[in-house]
Amino acid sequence: MMLSQMSATEVANRAPLGARTDSFAFWWLITMAALVGVMVLIGGVTRLTGSGLSMVEWRPLMGTLPPLSAAEWQRVYELYLASPEYNEFNYGMDLAGFKTIFFWEYFHRLWGRLLGLAFAIPFLMLIIRGNVPNGFGGRLFALLALGGFQGVIGWWMVKSGLTADATVSQYRLAVHLGMALIILVLLLWTAFDIRYGRAALPRGHAGGTLALVFVTILAGALVAGMDAGLLYNEYPLMGDGLVPVDYGDAGLLDAFENPAAAQFHQRCCSCCASSCSALRCCCTVCRCRLARCTRRVPCCCWPALSGQPTGCRASRARRPFRIPAACSNHCLIRTSLVPARGGCEARPAHCHPRRTAPPSSDPRPCRSSGTG
Known about the structure:
mainly alpha
């Protein structure tokens, strides 16, 4: 049968087993990265709605189901009535109001459990069938372990808010968000390594842009942890000048303990990250000559150029969570695009189909047998 007369299914069935397995692993990890992005967005909404401390107990298995009876709802409600947050911020909240904030924290934890299953079940299937991509078993195990550890970090963060001051530690919040970003980048980088071959770690401008975006998001976590975004709601001024008058009041820990300084530093980091991302897009236009990369340049430029205006609107929005949530979404997209753009240029030349490569008997010359 001629290849042109074969259906798509027949062509796929005649493809090497390793190629089909790697294609499955690639799309599985891309899907996981998208789910992690949704998880971060849900966590941001949970924070913005003040729902993070509504569940004062951690039950990894039994907590999968929500309260299903009036007695169970009354039990968890009474637990919240005894919590410091109720006495400090939500005194007088009735059961109906409690159910609203309980929903977001419960949904956040439930999504985390679903993420674990979405990763563990396909990974177990690959192990049983012996189809784990060659050299990536260790890296996939590490991703599974990081996902489980992230749940522990989440409860460690919540416990910091169950104390007398009823506020979550901004440091633990930054650690929790930072771990989520690390998992997101590792998922994307591993997916591209499986699909197109191993690439060197991002260096130079690509590595610097990724680090700067990472620092900007962590600075945003400090702002969120101290509710610093409510202090100055104008842009670019902060009060009567570019620098807030109470900048430096906390001494050596000013960047981490002073809400005004945290917001100022986050604004500066955001401006630098937007500029570097835009410059990175220009470098992509100049250096990536493949048609398939050039067509993606507008998609790369969009978050780089529109993230800063969204952040400005978020600083003026005060409490409504839609605009700050959109700002978080921009940061996640920008973080995701840096590994993709960096990987496009860092991978071996023969991984690109439009570049000439020496003949090889291996149908997948970009693959490596090194360890993950």
